[in-house]
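User: My collaborator sent over this chain with a note saying "see what the structure looks like." That's all I know about it. Can you take a look?
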Amino acid sequence: MFEPPPAIAGLSSGGFGTMSYAARHPDLFVAAASFSGALDTNTPPVVAGKAIDGLAAQDRGVPGSLFGLRELHEVRWRGHNPWDLAENLRHLSLVARAGNGMAGGEFGGGGPADPGGFFLERATYDMSVSFHQRLVDLGIDHVWDDYGAGTHSYPYWVDGLAKVLPVFMDAFAEQRPDPTEFTFRSIEPTYDAYGWRVALDRPALEFSELEVGAEGFALRGSGSARVTTAPVYLPNQPYVVRMSGSDGSTEERTVRADRAGRLTLDVSLGAANPLQQVFLPTHGSPLTAVHETRAEIARAVGAPTRG
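Assistant: Without extra context I'll predict from the sequence alone. Here is the result:
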């Protein structure tokens, strides 16, 4: 009997956790929903930073307890930020809901008479709008429910959950398989996605990106890596792998799939960056060199066709 992956949902800071966790582990979920969530800690970073540090303070933590001080460790913040990881969510059913904090909503609250509710909802609204626009720019299908007036309070979230449950049920009913083509980015030195594994050797923390396609894969980053494919090849059969780097380098090798149908490949990504990734306000990182290596995988001559 087919058992679909679970769905995940959260409100406020839990909305951040929902989309962050789903984006870092998309193969564990079929759907994700945020209610008034802090979905882009880059917008605005000062407010978002105080909000995140406020969560740490609730557990007697000091500023920077979660991801380090943003001024010194922005890459760690971005490595958990739904906006920066949005591409990873492409194959999930997604919902984001938020009000603008103003008075006049269906369940009351908001506006000047409710400064706390207004401030919190307005901040998460701006972050949710930024996340929504990011999904639009990437062409990722999702539901964006901007319901206008409304405060940062449970009546709106309870109403949102009732509206989201049918979306979750539809996602469960689809019984969708893991995608065979996807892009996944992460700051982690080792990560897994949809049966693939990347283990990087580099001294500094930075984003890397794995792009899997019908003919093989591409890996972007610096240093070196060991890539283990999903079990999509014929067990114990040889495959020709043609590597091409963005520096013009080329290499051809023959690799045999293991008993499960996985290939393990060592990949060069050029000289490793010595310092952690830093960002401009435009989100660019001019001081972080990014090398790309593409691997085209085909069956060896005389071997059975690809499984």
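A starting point for your reply to your collaborator: The chain has two domains: 7-174, 182-299.
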